Amino acid sequence: MLTTARILAATLLTSALAGAGAVTLVAGPPAYAAPEPSCTDVGVPTQTRQAQAVFTGEVTSVTTGPAEGDRRGVELVHEVTVEAVYKAARVDVPAELQVLTTRGVPGACNLGRLEEGEQVVFFVRAQTDEEGQVAEPPVFVASGDSGTAAADADLLDAVERILPNPSPPVPADPAEAEFEPLPVDPPAPLSRAVAPGAALVVAGLLGLFVVRRLNRR
């Protein structure tokens, strides 16, 4: 009888402690963790349609810096030499440009770093200001689900089936080109400039005078 009472008391005490722990757990502040969204591969046809520009190019250099605003993570700026432009909707694609990606930004589908010297197919959108205007020269953004990837044969074949007529990038603005000044001789004085002509006139008059003298004889 005593043993049964002890077992019953222990059971009640355990239930009470468990209930108190449950209440404490519910009443406590919930832990916040921003989940990293999965980058869904929607396929090259959809990625091509969604992209503002599609082009191939070589990554020549990469620099890193903190992400814009209050976001945690890293922003990577890729300098790219463009080879062929497959699509350019309401934007020019210059021969030299920048492509931005992110790494470790919570809530973003981060593409990360592209290797220097790598040939890449870029599916990008142009960065715009608060008024929705594209900067000049344009800066492009590539996300992890954009389709941007190394330019292997399969990816190039898929792009060229949809966009079969690539064009060259827009050349550099002639106004921005640098020209080496050529040496220029100072202008000759007026007397020197006139002298050759005056000599010819005098020679012509002398010749006319001699001819007339000969005709008189």
Keywords, please?
single chain, 217 residues, alpha+beta, 4 helices, 6 strands, disordered N terminus
Short overview:
The chain is α+β, with helices and mostly antiparallel strands and 217 residues long. 32% of the residues lie in helices and 23% in strands.
Beta fraction: 15-25%
Strand arrangement, largest sheet?
A: 1-2-3-5-4
Give the quaternary arrangement of the chains. single chain
Low-confidence segments: 1-5, 16-36
Number of E strands: 6
Label the overall shape.
elongated
Category by helix and strand content:
alpha+beta
How many DSSP H or I helices?
4
H/E series: HHEEEEEEHH
| C-alpha Rg (nearest Å) | 39 Å
Structure description:
The protein is an alpha+beta fold. It has 4 helices and 6 strands. It has helices at 2-27, 44-50, 153-162, 190-216; strands at 53-66, 74-88, 96-103, 119-126, 139-141, 149-150. Strands 1-2-3-5-4 form a 5-stranded mixed beta barrel. β1 and β2 (74-88) form a beta hairpin. The longest helix has 27 residues, at 190-216. The radius of gyration is 39 Å and the shape is elongated. The protein starts with a helix and ends with a helix. The model is unreliable at 1-5 and 16-36 (pLDDT under 50).
